[in-house]
Amino acid sequence: MAPKDYVSRGKSQTPPPKETPPLPWVRILVTTALISGFGYFLWSIKGSAPETDSKQIIEPKEKTDPLPKVPKEKWDFIDALDHQDIEVDVPEPAEPKDTRPYKMQCGSFRLKSQAEEMKAKLALVGLEANVKGTEGKNGLWYRVAVGPIETKREAEAQKHRARKLGIPTCQIWRWN
């Protein structure tokens, strides 16, 4: 490929700068005239309001009938609640449905070397994994599983630790 000649390329075509529009003198004059006219109008009506005598004192009228005194309220429900016994049925605490521990399977491989490699990656995170060979319809498979784990919360925490390392394939199941 031949080298490119940047010298004969020439200057880039830049568009000419846009012209700014002139000031709108008509709008400025009309606005100034309106504001001046409104100011003159306010100045001209300044003293034309009728004067009111604010010194007149209005005498209060005498009260003819005083209000009756408020009768004391009698609350009957307070006495009724004191003499009432309420029985509450407390259900027995429900036992957990399934007390089996959890396991987390992170892979299933045809080759034992791949399973051992996954086990080593999990060991870097601090998870102790087991490699178990199982015979299925498709032949021999090597499962990489972590467990037993007592609670679902612990299992989820270990799953997130494995995901941070780059192993997103882990699944949590009940221990068989």
UniProtKB/TrEMBL annotation:
Pfam families the record matches: SPOR
GO molecular function (one): peptidoglycan binding
InterPro entries linked to this entry: Cell_div_SPOR-domain, SPOR-like_dom, SPOR-like_sf
Annotated SPOR domain residues: 96-175
Chain residue ranges for the region called Disordered: 1-23
Compositionally biased region (Pro residues): 14-23
Gene3D superfamilies reported for this sequence: Sporulation related repeat
Keywords: Membrane, Transmembrane, Transmembrane helix
Domain of life: Bacteria
Transmembrane stretches, start-end: 25-45
PANTHER family, per database record: CELL DIVISION PROTEIN DEDD-RELATED, CELL DIVISION PROTEIN FTSN
Name by which UniProt lists this protein: SPOR domain-containing protein
Organism: Neptunicella marina
Source taxonomy: Bacteria, Pseudomonadati, Pseudomonadota, Gammaproteobacteria, Alteromonadales
